[in-house]
Amino acid sequence: MIGAALAVFALTLFVGVASASAQEVESFGCIGSRFTINCTSRIGPAGDPFVRVVPAPANDAAAKRSLERERRWVDRCRPTLVPDGYGVSRYTYASPGCEFGVGEN
Known about the structure:
The chain is an alpha+beta fold. It folds into 2 domains: 2-45, no CATH class; 75-105, no CATH class. It is built from 2 helices and 4 strands, in the order H-E-E-H-E-E.
């Protein structure tokens, strides 16, 4: 059982090194006990997976609409940074729904 797990680990390590490029990160791990073992491997783009890239406006008219929409949101929601009990700055908003990016009601 342990020999099979080591073989899978070695094969995945070799294949991962051969296929990963400079823009990718590979994560591999195994966990198990005496009678069971589970291994997993993930190859994906480098960077924070929770950061979403927002595309630029398609033209000047779209850019102007976007700026106007943002200005109206800021005027209505009035975002303010307030430290919480642990000293971490948190945004507070003047209107409900602003924390979700909701527009006009």
